[in-house]
Amino acid sequence: MMHSRSVQIWVGLFVVAGMAALLMLSMKVSNISAFTESEGFEVTGYFENIGGLKVRSPVTMAGVVVGRVANIGFDKDSYEAVVTLNIQNEYDNIPVDSSASIFTAGLLGEQYIGLEAGGAEEVLKAGSELELTQSAIVLEQIIGQFLVSQADKE
Amino acid sequence: MLDQLQKLGATALGVAERLGRGHLFLWHVLGGFPALLPRFGLVINQLFSVGVLSLLIIAVSGLFVGMVLALQGYNTLVDFGATESLGVMVALSLVRELGPVVGGLLFAGRAGSALTAEIGLMKATEQLSAMEMMAVDPLHRVVAPRFMAGILAMPLLAAIFSALGVIGGYFVAVGLLGVDEGAFWSQMQAKVDLYEDILNGVIKSIVFGFVVTWIAVFEGYDAVPTSEGVSRATTNTVVHGSLAVLGLDFILTALMFG
Hints:
The complex is a heterodimer of chains A (about 150) and B (about 260). Chain A is built from two helices and eight strands, in the order αββββββββα. By secondary structure, chain A is α/β, with parallel strands linked by helices. Chain A folds into two domains: about 1-30; about 40-145, no CATH class. In chain A, strands 7-1-4-3-2-6-5-8 form an eight-stranded mixed β-sheet, with no helix packed on it. In chain A, a hairpin with a 4-residue loop joins β3 and β4 (about 80-90). The radius of gyration of chain A is 23 Å and the shape is elongated. Chain B has one domain (about 30-255). The N and C termini of chain B lie far apart (about 45 Å).
């Protein structure tokens, strides 16, 4: 009984089922597809305010994810946020004067970077810097501005 | 007054002594692991009783927990028009918490109690002493394979629990409640991180497997060799194992996601 064949077959099935469950969790449930795109080039951009942007937030162009935020730092001289974007290698024809803005998905959703193509001949490559950036829209500031403008009218 | 104090002191000493014995025991059992590798058949037999026989309760619980999560989550999320996030909610709660924790509790109840009873009875019927007489170390021959099987089985069981829970949640959300199928999966894939969520869940389940099996085999080995002692040891395994899972879960969660 101890070394019987059926025991071993059952254990084999058990191990296969466990592995399959792990595989399903990592392939179907998690964002593993995002890891295949790690091969890309990095460009930086300076933002006055990044709001709630996080590392691994998506970078989109025309709504399509073309990369991810790789790193967020702080520039001590200009007091600005330095955001490093990792853009997938296949998108190697983005004009160098493209503008980057931080948008919010939905009213209260997650923040992401939207790129808008410029008109320059030169394209972004590793180490390029995005010159045209637009900060995140901070809801509190907008409400504050709105209240101030209402007060001015009266 | 002095008697009370003495009782308290004796209890504290007893607890400390037991803890110490538990650690020495662990050290000794871990020392038997290298010798197990060439005789892996011993571990496979234990994997059958610890893993395969626990499969049914784990699978059914996982499926139903996932289904209930989807039903309950829907009631809250529908107020905010955010039912597309149901997939994220079900997957994150399963992978981060419920898979390892509920899996661990069930494991303590199903496999842990069986391990304790088995080893306790071996001790009560003096099978362990007989082994020692034959110069076979029962810690290496009896306890170590069971211990290793527990550590190996628990992460697999937790993964099966989580995966079936997600599938159960999918059936309820998409089939019963009419959540959009594409949004269910894509939101889930966008939010669940391979390292941050899934790997940490697996680490949790390995830790729980280790602790629950340790408690189970030690309670069995340390049981008072009478029928009453074995029954008390089995109860202890389930109670202490479950408490250890819940307590460790808080600490691990604070460390991982805090």
